[in-house]
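User: Could you go from structure to sequence for me? I need the amino acid at each position, not a summary. Structure tokens:
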């Protein structure tokens, strides 16, 4: 939940600060739209590869890397001095943040029994969207006493704190965690077994009946939701 909130905090804050950025760096409305697109394109391009990587080495390491990466580039956004550098920084931001959502789902698949998983996913998404809703107000408040550069630094630090706590606390398997009892391990592992193979091939994935409709629904949802504040900042 905290990761979901920080994700939206770091991602959406540029929309609120866009007018100040455009003024200071002499960036036009069209150029700023390319800045937003650079993040989104790189994010989409590396979503599947990063999720695949987590299947190989575990979500503990990959999520730690993701949050450290995006937090670093949140802070670096505040150090940008030109349009060209801003494009590069935001593209690298998107590249590094890609895979956060698949990794969260992977964490739930290892720790949450199937019959409880939808509720947990609901809580996770609610946290993300609540953060997205509150972020404009939070950043607007921060901007009353900090420059846009300092504002990026202030929210970027939160990710470093989360990553340190996550790596120290989380384990990829319940049986690896010292505070989980044998009974809890048995309950989780029995409840998460759906009888399916752990790694389905691409053909099986693409043949899933609900895949295409869900992709279309999420595409429409993402376009309308994440870019509303961006368009307002450019208006």
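Assistant: Here is the amino acid at each position, in order:
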């Amino acid at each position: 939940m905290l990761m979901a909130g920080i994700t939206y905090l770091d991602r959406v804050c540029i929309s609120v600060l866009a007018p100040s950025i455009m003024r200071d760096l002499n960036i036009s409305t069209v150029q700023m739209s390319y800045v937003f697109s650079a993040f989104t394109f790189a994010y989409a391009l590396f979503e599947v590869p990063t999720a695949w990587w987590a299947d190989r080495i575990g979500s503990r390491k990959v999520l730690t890397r993701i949050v450290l990466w995006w937090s670093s580039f949140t802070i670096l956004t505040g150090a940008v001095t030109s349009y060209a550098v801003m494009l590069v920084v935001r593209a690298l931001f998107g590249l590094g943040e890609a895979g956060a959502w698949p990794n969260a789902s992977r964490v739930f698949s290892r720790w949450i029994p199937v019959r409880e998983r939808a509720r947990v996913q609901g809580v996770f998404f609610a946290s993300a969207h609540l953060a997205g809703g509150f972020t404009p107000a939070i950043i607007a408040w921060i901007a009353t006493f900090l420059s846009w550069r300092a504002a990026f630094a202030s929210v970027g630090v939160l990710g470093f704190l989360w990553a340190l706590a996550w790596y120290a606390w989380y384990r990829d398997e319940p049986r690896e965690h010292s505070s989980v009892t044998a009974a809890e391990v048995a309950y989780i592992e029995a409840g998460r077994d759906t009888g399916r193979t752990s790694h389905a091939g691409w053909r099986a994935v693409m043949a899933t009946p609900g895949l295409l409709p869900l992709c279309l629904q999420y595409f429409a949802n993402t376009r309308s939701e994440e870019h509303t504040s961006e368009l307002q900042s450019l208006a």
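One structural detail worth keeping in mind: The radius of gyration is 19 Å.
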